[in-house]
Amino acid sequence: MSDLKPINFTRGIPAIESFPADDVIDAALAALKAHGRTILQYGAAIGFAPLVEWLAQWQGVKTNQVLTSNGSLQLVEFLCWHLVKPGTIVFTEAPTYDRTLVLLRRHRAQVIGIPLQADGPDIGALEAELKKHTPLFFYVIPDFQNPAGATCSAEKRRQIAALAEKHNFLLLEDAPYRQLRYRGREEPRLLDLAPARTLHMSSFSKLIGPGPRIGFMFGDPALISKIAEVAGDTYISPNFLAQGVAYEWCRRGLLEPQIENLKALYTPRLDACLAALRKYVPDAKATRPDGGFFVSITLPDGVQTTAVRTAAAKRNLNLADGLAFFPNGGGERFLRLPYCALTTAEIDEGIRRLADTIKEL
Amino acid sequence: MSDLKPINFTRGIPAIESFPADDVIDAALAALKAHGRTILQYGAAIGFAPLVEWLAQWQGVKTNQVLTSNGSLQLVEFLCWHLVKPGTIVFTEAPTYDRTLVLLRRHRAQVIGIPLQADGPDIGALEAELKKHTPLFFYVIPDFQNPAGATCSAEKRRQIAALAEKHNFLLLEDAPYRQLRYRGREEPRLLDLAPARTLHMSSFSKLIGPGPRIGFMFGDPALISKIAEVAGDTYISPNFLAQGVAYEWCRRGLLEPQIENLKALYTPRLDACLAALRKYVPDAKATRPDGGFFVSITLPDGVQTTAVRTAAAKRNLNLADGLAFFPNGGGERFLRLPYCALTTAEIDEGIRRLADTIKEL
User: Which value does ipTM take for this structure?
Assistant: First the structure.
């Protein structure tokens, strides 16, 4: 093994230096003093009421449209328990978030991937699949997509909303990176374009930190209430202690300045990543995200991610395979680069090692 | 409706006055100062390492035998995802914890109830069922059973362990009330009698409070590791913020004195419940628990719980139906009385109202 410092382009985790630990201490104190008996007790499956109300106000939905959970991933699981049967057809982008695919497969959904382009899902391919099947839902990550980094254009969002209406399917909009736009203009949420048929998911994992495991979903009150029933049957109530702390933190107005801090921390990292790719790997096709956690590249012709990954490990450069992001195969040359938890120097050094690895293959 | 003060004998929740809120504040401060970057980040699916080590030492198991989760109920769900297929046979006590039945049914297990007696499951009935089927596991709540209040004798525990060995099935031992013994001698854990085939579950919900949602399971390292994989696929990691707080609280030696406080708080409540039953409802057959959260009664001949429940509501006495606790029917005269969250005066008044309700039916 090399004695180079390890560099991990593996998981989409936030930078530990971004965590507002001191403010969380103050919020924890306040939460336990003001709400101790509530947040140490069992509670409603939808979550700690003051946090539910705060989230509703923040995101412009009604309180009965909100369901919180221990992280947002599990909300996909609850939706599956409520509606997915073996063989149920679900569309996702291809590539898409690998952990969602694991849950969909666990419930034996038939997953059909719609190719993702630089400006969102390929609408022609989506229309062609809709001639063959109607999915229960289309799982879309419109903002700074995981794993690709692509953002869906406003025009494509309108087309997707119209197709959902026409063919009568749900939209599962996963938007944990939406607040982290480093440049450019915010696009409308699918929730705004198709409010009756969108379940919009997000989380505090990329804003406060993942440790408190606070995810949330907004949608039609009747559907939210059914999903909440599954949640209650699974774990009685979510983590009220953590939700009380998050509520006190939000109530103090700390979320907006924290988002600004995150943008200031992560923008140079995105820029470093894009610059290093241009400099060291100019023949790899890279996405050019305006926010979020990920840049992705398609390796040059004839270069396979699996081979690069194995060779890169010898330089203490740790990469993730691309295959797991693709529901129906493909992705042999796909490589996701999560840059947020690395310094600009580490990013530059990591991509230099990547280029050296490719050259030597 | 009556203008009497409502009395709820419905859910098995702890008394809010039992929560050690001030000590939890100190623990939260210490946890965020010492471990802020770890407990605000993603972590291992098994849980926050210092808590895992503390639990292992406390309960005399190895670290690789421990899996924590957001409450213990979800551990049943993870076990089901790992091993239960539609039609898989599972034995439970009858009656048993209704929420476990919901999860078993969700996974389409075939649940067979073994009648529960005052000293544990009916071993003759268990042996008779074992001649017909071998279950994947037998779900047992040996200590101060939910909902009955019964405790399994040492002799029956040995018989159950021997039958598990002979017929090759697992024991899922759910023991959240075990630490709350108000009198009498502790019986051995199934985990001690059949260590290779027992998954022992417990939680801090009845000791610190349910709000932090900290459950845990001890068992064979290979099996624990498989269940942890399901957990990770479901929510990445459990709530590290809450686990960090619980760890700091435990590390300060606060668990043992807290258990003594809980015993001092709950023992008079159990005594008040048993005394009121003797006084007001002498012809109902009641269990005589030595600890835990529940007394249960079998209503007099010809009196149905459903009818009592409806009539009691008019006196602002809220009761739970008995039927949900029975996997294969029965329980028409069964009534669970969770007494811990009520004062001795409320318990006396509640059971007086129960007796008046029965008389008027």
Answer: 0.97
Q: What is the DSSP string of B283-344?
A: TSEE---SBSSEEEEE--TT--HHHHHHHHHTTTEEE--SGGG-TTS--TTEEEEE-TTS-H
**What 3-state DSSP class applies to B197?**
helix
| B256-360, CATH topology level | Aspartate Aminotransferase, domain 1 (3.90.1150)
Assign B222 a pLDDT band (cuts: 50, 70, 90).
very high
Distance CA A117, CA A124 (A): 11
3-class SS shares of chain B: helix, strand, coil, % to 5: 45, 15, 35
Tell me, yes or no, if A108 comes closer than 8 A to chain B by beta carbon. Answer: no
The architecture of the domain spanning A21-251 is 3-Layer(aba) Sandwich (3.40)
With an 8 Å Cβ cutoff, is B118 touching chain A?
A: no
What tens digit of pLDDT does each residue of A131-161 get? 999 999 999 999 999 999 999 999 999 999 9
d(CA B182, CA B26): 29
Q: Which of residues 202-261 of B touch A (CB under 8 A)?
A: 205, 208-213, 233-242, 244-245
Chains A and B form CB pairs within 8 A to the count of 168
> For residue range A99-126, what is the model confidence (pLDDT) as tens digits?
999 999 999 999 999 999 999 999 999 9
CB < 8 Å to B233, chain A: 99, 102-103, 106
CA distance B209 to B246: 10
User: Quick one: closest CA in A to B45, which residue?
Assistant: A211
Chain B touched by A298 (CB under 8 Å)? no
Check if the beta carbon of residue B145 is closer than 8 Å to that of residue B116. Answer: yes
Which architecture, in CATH terms, is A7-12+256-360?
Alpha-Beta Complex (3.90)
Instruction: Report the residue from B24, B43, B73 with minimal CB separation from A32.
Output: B24
Nearest CB neighbour to B32, from listed A25, A239, A240:
A25
What was the pLDDT predicted at B1? 56
pLDDT at residue number A1: 56
